[in-house]
Specification:
Blueprint (H helix, E strand, L loop, with lengths): L2 E7 L3 H10 L1 H6 L2 E8 L6 E8 L2 H18 L7 E5 L1
Antiparallel strand pairs: 1-3, 1-4, 2-3
């Protein structure tokens, strides 16, 4: 089963937890299921979260679309780095 590991800097864990909870239904409708959320023990400014995903290419396409839309509205938006895992 493929996974998506996302890392985000300079956003508190509590805020990420709230956003992920708010977006849970959307993520699931897109074949993305949150598995874990971590605070980096060595760098408190970094949060990592892991999704189990149904399809890497579908998820890449979705993330690219969403991130492009966000950057069009705010070129300085703080977006997570995505790592796709098989």
């Amino acid at each position: 089963m493929p996974h998506l590991l996302a890392t985000l800097r300079n956003v508190p864990l509590e805020i990420i937890r709230e956003v992920l909870e708010k977006d849970k239904e959307f993520h699931q409708s897109q074949g993305m299921y949150l598995q874990h959320l971590w605070q980096n023990a060595d760098d408190e400014d970094e949060v990592l979260f892991l999704f189990q995903i149904d399809d890497i290419e579908k998820t890449k396409t979705l993330i690219h679309k969403l991130h492009s839309e966000t950057l069009a509205q705010n070129p300085n938006a703080n977006l997570p780095a995505m790592i796709y895992l098989e």
